[in-house]
Specification:
Layout: E1 3-12, H1 16-28, E2 31-38, H2 41-51, E3 63-66, H3 75-84, E4 92-97, H4 102-110, E5 115-118, H5 123-137
Parallel strand pairs: 1-2, 1-3, 3-4, 4-5
């Protein structure tokens, strides 16, 4: 799968290994764009707040890939902030979590997650996720 469009992706995960695998898989899938990486929910919200101002330096992401269990502010808090800020319907957020607890899945969906993928993440799992995401958003 390749994509001609230039995407802006926000990747929020405290695991350096998971961020590396994500970035490697994204590039090897032939997807073009910029990946903004951060390690916790505080940094993610800061990026989104700057992006609200619509600058070239801080573009609004096309999609967010979000871990749930992180230090400081967790993924649930990021989802809640996005919803309370009024961006819930205009921002795809894919949760990538080590938890397969039904209560976590349900809570993430209630807070506006577009999809919920359970770790461990493999390159194959990511490629399937990227394919679904690009196809879903190709017309936008």
């Amino acid at each position: 799968m390749t994509s001609e469009r230039q995407w802006t992706v926000l990747l929020v995960d405290d695991s350096e290994d998971d961020r590396y695998l994500f970035t490697y898989s994204f590039r090897s899938a032939g997807i073009q764009g910029r990946i903004l990486e951060c390690e916790d929910g505080d940094a993610a919200i800061e990026i989104l707040q700057h992006a609200q101002r619509s600058s070239v330096e801080h573009p609004w992401p096309d999609v967010v890939f979000l871990d749930l269990k992180m230090p400081r502010r967790d993924g649930f808090e990021v989802l809640r902030w996005v919803r309370e800020a009024g961006f819930g319907g205009s921002l795809d957020i894919y949760v990538l979590s080590g938890s397969n607890e039904p209560s976590d899945v349900e809570r993430a969906q209630e807070l506006g997650a577009s999809d919920y993928i359970t770790k461990p993440i493999t390159e194959q799992k990511l490629r399937l996720l990227f394919d679904r995401w690009v196809k879903r958003n190709a017309k936008n």
